[in-house]
Design goal:
The complex is a heterodimer of chains A (108) and B (119). Chain A has 108 residues and is an all-beta fold. Chain A is built from no helices and 10 strands. In chain B, a hairpin with a 6-residue loop joins strand 5 and strand 6. Classes of the chains: A mainly beta (108), B mainly beta (119). Chains A and B meet through strand 4, strand 5 and strand 9 of A and strand 4, strand 5 and strand 10 of B.
Chain lengths: 108, 119
Amino acid sequence: EIVLTQSPGTLSLSPGEVATLSCRASQTVDSNYLAWYQHKPGQAPRLLIYGAFNRATGIPDRFSGSGSGTDFTLTISRLEPEDSAVYSCQQYGGSPRAFGPGTKVDIK
Amino acid sequence: QVHLVQSGAEVKKPGASVKVSCKASGYTFTNYYIHWVRQAPGQGLEWMGIINPSGGSTSYAQKFQGRVTMTRDTSTTTVYMELSSLKSEDTAVYYCARTGDYGDYLDYWGQGTLVTVSS
């Protein structure tokens, strides 16, 4: 069973800055089957990235994914106030399709 | 346009069961798997299991084995998730979500169903 850890737990940044979020897997994620989701209170999660670096439909190019194997990164450039949310990674290469605990991004 | 519409909020007593529905529209129902994911208050997302609407086969997270049952009705394009022997720790928002075109990631989500377990 693959366990995902995310760091940092919370990130406090200002508009225009760059956020770098880390997701580390306890084992290699097959075929880089790693997704990132944005989750805001009272809303359903939104898919941002799949296959480690592919942006989902309608996601602005400020969001980018990278990494392979066990180490993955979500980068959000030119932060905007609406980017305040929890960001979770998920591996879907094996069962269970585990999620990471999430990184909370506060835009102050 | 893809839509997943879930049933409304539920309040249940410990030991009871709850059945949440997820009606799919806007795509060929049998072509995409449906996952169930939950989020307890203050916690992260937790994957519960998956159902293949085509044949009805399922795979559940070990944590929920024996307590969760996922079914589907192809005539109404609806998927169901039933959780039994409810405990207060099962209080959470439950989401259904559809897999993507290129893999098992979750590209469309239902609006969520709050299940509250309280005596």
